[in-house]
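So, can you check this record?

>
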Amino acid sequence: MPHAFWKGYLKLSLVTCAVEIMPATTESEKVRFHTLNAKTGNRVISRYVDSVTHKPVREEDEIKGFEKAEGDYVLLEDDELEAVALESTRTIDIEKFLERDSIGWIWYDKPHYLLPSDKVGQEAFAVIREAMDESGVSGLARLVMYRRERAVLLEPRGQGIVLWTLHFGDEVRKADDYFAGIKAEKPDKKLFSMVRTLIKRKTEDWKPDLLKDPVQKNLQSMIAAKKKKIKTPTKPKSAATAPATGGNVINIMDTLRKSLANEKKQH
């Protein structure tokens, strides 16, 4: 099991317990590349340089700045930045509760697993989790993660809690700004029926195997071949065929008939 990347406390009013956070997703299996110097074969390292003098900047000379006007910055020290979100650095203080599933999917960011970090805190953790579960609610809190304070949602799940980072209110664009101009049209009944049939044939029960990354598989095969010093053939790029967008019923009808016929062969 991976190591916890955050340890602190879960707090509800006066009830507190020690907890830790584990990432719920991983990219450890993905193929990762280093940038190398093609002439020497050595790794290339990145360094901060002054944009005017082009000279390297020492780490102790680096400082955060907010640009108030072009080339004019408000400078902020590390301790000033840390003081802004001091309470949420090591404590998840549940401020409010929301009815379960009342937040739309678009507000969700990254999932994490929240669990007690010692035996002493297991009872308090279980009481908070079970009370939330029985009440059908999720908890809303704030927490410093990934170098900035974030809104987080706590959802009871089995014996633990899933902690979601959330997008802030000003980070999600309104769907109406984009969809308002789409005309509401009633679809042709025959086309509608054929698409429904196509959907039915393509509908499956969910399983993780449905989400596979073909690029990663191809990269792994290519790397394995290079390890054996086998030249990997490169596939010519196929010319992209633009889909039929004639806009008339006959074209769409013909396309749907072909799609349904192909799906029937595969089943």
Summary: Residues 185-203+248-267 form one domain. Strands lie at 6-12, 15-23, 64-69, 72-76, 91-93, 96-99, 108-116, 137-145, 148-157, 160-166. The first strand starts at residue 6 and ends at 12.
